[in-house]
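not sure who needs this but someone in the group chat was asking about Branched-chain-amino-acid aminotransferase from Octadecabacter ascidiaceicola so here u go. i didnt clean anything up, its just raw.
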Amino acid sequence: MAGAYDDRDGKIWMDGKLVEWRDANVHILTHALHYASSVFEGERCYDGKIFKSREHSERLITSGKLIDFDIPYTLDEIEAAKQATLDANGLTNAYVRAVAWRGAGEDMGVASAKNPVHLAVACWEWGNYYGDAKTKGAKLDIAKWKRPSPETAPSQAKAAGLYMIATMSKHAAEAKGCSDAMMYDYRGYIAEATGANIFFVKDGEVHTPTPDAFLNGLTRQTVIGMLRDKGITVNERHIMPEELDSFEQCWLTGTAAEVTPVGQIGDKTFEVGKLVTDLAAEYEALVRA
């Protein structure tokens, strides 16, 4: 499958039925388009099985509640919708996008309690998120935008509105020839990349930011468990920018990123070393087990 995302062959599950890809449309006065009242999940299907599928569906439901709406489908119904979408498109290795949003209705202002909530699921073939960075190491810019305080935005929701500064940061990074950007949080601590969590290595131990102002990714949690099972110490803590010079290796984790080594952040370079390359291979084996 290729081409613009609005002009493809295939099926999208939308509000309880499979529709033709090009017919999966919403009204211009959809509330989510104007006020970002939308949550989503990014998932990968490997050899016919979505990795941590139920956990993703559970988080989708939770994200909706965190931005004040209930998705009108049960966990099992969301799971069935994802499988039906994969089957309808004949895909066993794919990226899966479930999205829920407030649609057009009686309200067309900031408040939208009278508007219906919709759910859709699409899937498509998608390779490495960072291209050849999976082997060479990604190059990251440092974003000027910061992850907001959890008193400002619901940081544990995978909500569309929280990605606006990520989009701007990634655009700025790409304009400089980088793959992505590393973001600080509102206190000035290292937080994450625009759509992936970040890890560092120093003296055989792993360090990763405390997810108190950004999403605690499912891949992040998986990788921490893998490292601890290997007997490697993982320190979840606040990390200051000046610590970058002391770290030897770095990588990103996420459903799209999987485990991607980082070769450079700003002027600081990192080794694409054995720990991260072994971890990437072990993660690949895990998701296909």
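also DSSP finds seven helices and 15 strands in the chain. if thats useful
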